[in-house]
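$ ./design --mode recover --in tokens.txt
reading tokens...
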């Protein structure tokens, strides 16, 4: 059954807007309105989507030999320095060419 949508103005905190944009992109929604509509529909029907992460618990692995992350600073610094040592190829696109104006013949 098709139900027409109504326009609505919504004001969000910056963090919530960024989260909503990320959710829309990750779920391949056409717009923020579609993502917001999906969230409201799911909540109204009684729950959160099963694939919506609610916590970061279990999403990272901590090395067994460094449970207190004492070596983490040195590791991140090393990875960053290796990344900075790599060469980057950057190409600029030339400006778009403008067509010459047509002269009017009368």
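writing sequence...
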């Amino acid at each position: 059954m098709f139900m027409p949508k109504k326009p609505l103005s919504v004001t969000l905190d910056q963090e919530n807007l960024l989260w909503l944009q990320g959710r829309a992109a990750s779920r391949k929604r056409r717009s923020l309105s579609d993502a917001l509509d999906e969230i409201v529909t799911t909540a109204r029907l009684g729950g959160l989507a099963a694939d919506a992460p609610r916590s970061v618990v279990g999403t990272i692995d901590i090395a067994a030999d460094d449970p207190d992350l004492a070596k983490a600073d040195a590791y991140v610094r090393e990875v960053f320095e290796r990344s900075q040592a790599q060469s980057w190829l950057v190409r600029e696109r030339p400006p778009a060419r403008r067509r010459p104006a047509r002269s009017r013949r009368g």
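exit 0
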